[in-house]
Amino acid sequence: MLGLFTDRLLICVDKIDEQHIKLFNAIEQFREACNDRDWDEVIRVFNFLKVYFENHFKDEEEYMVKYMYSGYEEHKAEHNLFLRKIYAFDSVLKMNYISITKIMEMNEFFTENFVMHLSEVDSKLGVFLNDKL
After folding, report:
1. Considering the domain boundaries, does residue 19 fall inside one?
2. What's the total number of domains in the chain?
3. Which positions fall inside the Hemerythrin-like domain (predicted)?
4. What is the mean pLDDT of the chain?
5. What is residue 4's predicted lDDT score, i.e. its pLDDT?
């Protein structure tokens, strides 16, 4: 999975890039736990991802507000959509029933949507912040 994280996904803001790499590592742990059908580990890593994404998005949004990023509203809306999907998965996990279909959906969501968010949304923020930092 870390093969998905390439230099093209770096936005050249150290704090955010470090968080992105940590998220990719956790997504890989989540994928491995799902493949191993280690449901305790799936839940543990998912809970980590949920909290870490919340904090990461908050950090990005603080940068956007501090430096008056013109794309703030759209970017925040993307974060909110991402978090709503995570919260929907959280509700499923709390029912103590995890279907293979839902596991596949969660893996696809974390990998594809996160990569897309980085390459299409965060990259614009990175260009903006590089002129400010």
Report:
1. yes
2. 1
3. 13-125
4. 90
5. 65
Q: Is 5 a member of any domain?
A: no
Which tens digit of pLDDT belongs to each residue from 47-84? Answer: 999 999 999 999 999 999 999 999 999 999 999 999 99
d(CA 94, CA 131): 43
82: containing domain:
12-127
- If one compares 98 and 90, the residue with the highest pLDDT of the two is 90
Half-sphere exposure at residue 42, Cβ-oriented, CA atoms within 13 angstroms:
23
Show the 3-state SS of the chain: CHHHCCHHHCCCCHHHHHHHHHHHHHHHHHHHHHHHCCHHHHHHHHHHHHHHHHHHHHHHHHHHHHCCCCCHHHHHHHHHHHHHHHHHHHHHHHCCCCCHHHHHHHHHHHHHHHHHHHHHHHHHHHHHHHCCC
